[in-house]
Amino acid sequence: MRTYTLHLDRDAQTGDAHGLERAHLVPDGLSWTAFAFGPLWFLFHRLWLAALGVLALLVATAYLGRMAALNPFAGLLVTLLVLLLIGLEASSLRRWTYARRGRPVRDAVLAASLEEAEMKAANRWFDGVVPPRPAPVPYANATSRPSEVAIGMFPTSEGRR
Fold first, then answer.
1. Which residue has the higher pLDDT, 3 or 148?
2. Whole-prediction pTM value?
3. Measured over all CA atoms, what is the biggest interatomic distance in the chain, rounded to whole angstroms?
4. Quick one: pLDDT at residue 137?
5. Which of 3, 15, 50, 154 is within CB 3.0–4.6 Å of 93 for a Cys-Cys bond?
6. Would you list the DSSP string of 33-72?
7. Residues with Cβ < 8 Å from 112, sequence gap 6 or more?
8. How far apart are CA 21 and CA 10, in angstroms?
9. What count of Cα atoms within 13 Å lies in the side-chain half-sphere of residue 96?
10. Average pLDDT of 130-150?
11. 26 - beta bridge partners?
12. CA-to-CA separations, 128 to 44, 79, 118, 133, in angstroms, rounded
């Protein structure tokens, strides 16, 4: 089973078919095609900034490998590890780009395939199960500062003097 996130426009209303037509499902986990093709995968998915970042990362890796005078096997190993990192983070970069473009995560479904995820997401969307996204409140869970000044590493363990 794989987790898929549903990305819709901010103003899409639950149960609206027009909002669901423009939806994107993003699978979570390793993207083998992003691992194999690197920046081309990002360009295919229209992730321009992420493609530039990945290309810069690969160029910097090659440059640093040449400056460090790595042998060809070590250079290949480092490049494969960087490509593995790119494959692991490709879905997160795709989610970040959609959120930046005004399509935040609205729902998450577990499914064995993309088709099953589409069916589950559509059923939940039309049944009204997807909760509306609340407006973000900055620092809603922030705790207040203590009233007394603490000096030392553990002032409460020393007791009162």
1. 3
2. 0.70
3. 68
4. 61
5. 50
6. HHHHHTHHHHHHTT-HHHHHHHHHHHHHHHHHHHHTT--H
7. 1, 2
8. 14
9. 11
10. 59
11. 5
12. 32, 46, 15, 13
